[in-house]
Amino acid sequence: MRILNLTTETKKNILNDLLKRSPNQYGQYEETVNEIIGRVKAEGDQALFEYTEKFDKFSLNAETIKVTREEIAQAYESLDSELIEVIKKSAENIRIFHAKQLRNSWFDAREDGTILGMKFTPIATVGVYVPGGKAAYPSSVLMNVVPAKVAGVGKIIMTTPPGADGRVNPGTLVAADVAGVDTIYKVGGAQAVAAMAYGTESVPKVDKITGPGNIFVALAKKAVYGHVSIDSIAGPSEILVLADESAKPEYVAADLLSQAEHDEMASAILVTTSKELAEKVSQWVDTFVSQLSRKEIIQKSLDNYGYILLAEGIQDAIDAVNEIASEHLEILTANPFEVMTKIRNAGAIFLGEYASEPLGDYFAGPNHILPTNGTAKFFSPVNVDDFVKKSSIISYSREALEKVHRDIELFAESEGLTAHANSVRVRFQNME
After folding, report:
1. pLDDT digits (tens, 9 = 90+) for 285-317
2. How far apart (Å, rounded) are the C-alpha atoms in residues 335 and 91?
């Protein structure tokens, strides 16, 4: 891996490179995505079936679009029993973690008859998109569905593309069943997003769409946002390791590569105060890459978006970490908890040498659907709140409103909104 001194200029150049990976930079695909969405909105199932045959090479129809209980049973039979148990354990860890995020409606009643509060209501229907083929990730099924179930979502559907034989990845089906998906539809791509956003004869309209996908799925989610809610427009995966001389170089190298193997646009960055560590990590990276099955993808990822940055001091390193705002941040320093208190921007923070990034991806419980491309500066991981609506509650007695009605009228009139003022004034005109 290339080793660079951390300067204002190198930091600026790296940030510019990372932002180029954002789905917002791929406008050349928007016309295609908009055409697909328009056809599905206008033609419903017919467009879904035609696009599935075109892109997935499977002849879909109204009878085969839903995954059957028999297919789910076959998925259980084809999957290793030990893996099924791991999926169940992971789902339970995710459920326990997200259950702590639940909030109750609250009301504040005062003696003068004022009642203010907040009412929490689960979203009625959620649609989860799951990639298919080699990009099938049962772990992402759990991370989307379990928090929605914890939140109390009434109906959860899932769309995922079929293979040319009409089958769905068995791991995806088992994870969906364990997590509690109500119905699974064999449709993928931008056309699946459009179906969930607008509804077709077979696929019901949902209120929110979550889940990862390729650039077409990301742009489709962006296009339908506002008509339905979405979780985020995810970019390529990224990891940043903040380490000092106490870190084990082989651990750092292995963790960097755990994200570089996702795709050629994934980003893996080490920020360190130790030149010796930087050189040893670079050597270990070369060793591991030669041994790993996805070495071509990893190498391209490292060539394009892999960096080792040498900082003069720990504060400079922390400043760079906060500026990059990585999806995954590992802190491998002598006192990681102290450093963590100075971190403002990161999707998920992993502390210590035994909290490697895959622990969060698969098993620990916190959500692995995280903000990317620097959006950790203002976005959060998927959580229970993403599946809940909040309504403000306001109730005033006549006594309470009488004390403040002139204040409200004055405020409204200052904005030129006389009907607003009259709405309050009319309630007290007989008194004057």
Report:
1. 999 999 999 999 999 999 999 999 999 999 999
2. 31
